[in-house]
Amino acid sequence: MDTISLIILIIGIFVSFRVISTRSRSLKLLYVCCLNFVIASLIVLYVKSPMGAIVAIVYFVFGTLSSNAIANTIGNLKKMER
Amino acid sequence: MEINISILELFKILTAFVVCWINFVVVDTIFGLPKKPGVYGAEVIGKKIEKVGGNINGGYFMGNIVCSPDASAGTLFASIFYYVLGFKGVLIGALLIYIGNRLCNDPGYAGTIGTITAGILIYVFSDVLHLISPKYFIVGMVIAILTIQGLYPQLSSKLLGHIAKKLRVL
Question: CA of B6: how far to CAs of B11, B20, B143, B167, in Å?
């Protein structure tokens, strides 16, 4: 394991603990976005081929899309509770 | 498992981090991410950050990053595609980022322009100056997004709001 993967791995473990320990649903999405970056870069460092880059970008775009949908739903729920 | 960490490598990672951070914050700020939330979800996240003691404009910036792939994702994928394919890969990455932006209901200028400026910067640092190879930019971008989103959102949103005022976007 080289330095680059090690640093990304440490960041990933730290951020996943932040995701578990935060109570607020909206603030969790910030850490999940950070985790998406970590996983996309780990995919490419592990696969290291053009196909790996495509897989990483597809993973990232659809991860962002689901974050978008979750944030939208949280907003709508707050509107309904009022 | 043997791990060798040299000072030179850490210095390269630090330089790549600074380059990525400046690239994506400046491009995103110029394209008006702190000004208004692009989608409804970004507004929700911005208001929540203001509620826990941050800046509303920095909150909109961070909400926009969460809700659509902007220049932050552009910088990451410029370094990833440069790492596997060279400079022509950056153009493929810009196209895919544009498609992702359209899927998330965003105009998509910040993402594509950010990808191309990051590609040019990586080209200058790796192939012209022969200083930093593209894989250091991948870890640099991960550390950059950690400082914005992962460490302490209240403080980083205040910093982003301050930068937006300095660049006269607001």
Answer: 9, 21, 18, 37
Residue B2 domain-assigned (yes or no)? no
Residues in chain A: 82
What residues contact residue B88 under an 8 Å CB cut-off, 6+ apart? Answer: none
- B41 to A71: CB separation less than 8 angstroms, yes or no: yes
Number of structural domains (chain B) is 1
Range of the domain at B15: 7-166
| Residue B46: C-alpha distances to residues B88, B116, B159 (Å) | 36, 28, 14
Q: Quick: pLDDT tens for B43-62.
A: 999 999 999 998 999 999 99
ipTM higher than threshold 0.90: yes
**pLDDT at residue A16, as a whole number:** 93
Q: B98 lies in a domain?
A: yes
- Cβ-Cβ contacts under 8 Å, A69 against chain B: 41
Cross-chain CB nearest to A72 (options B40, B93, B143): B40
Query: Looking at beta carbons, which residues of chain B come within 8 Å of A60?
Result: 69, 73, 76-77, 100
What number is the average pLDDT over the span A9-31? 91
Cβ atoms of B130 and B137 closer than 8 Å: no
Specify if B35 maps to a domain: yes
Are B104 and A62 contacting, i.e. CB atoms less than 8 angstroms apart? Answer: no
Helix/strand/coil for B49: helix
User: How far, in whole angstroms, is CA A80 from its chain's centroid?
Assistant: 28
First to last CA, chain A: 52
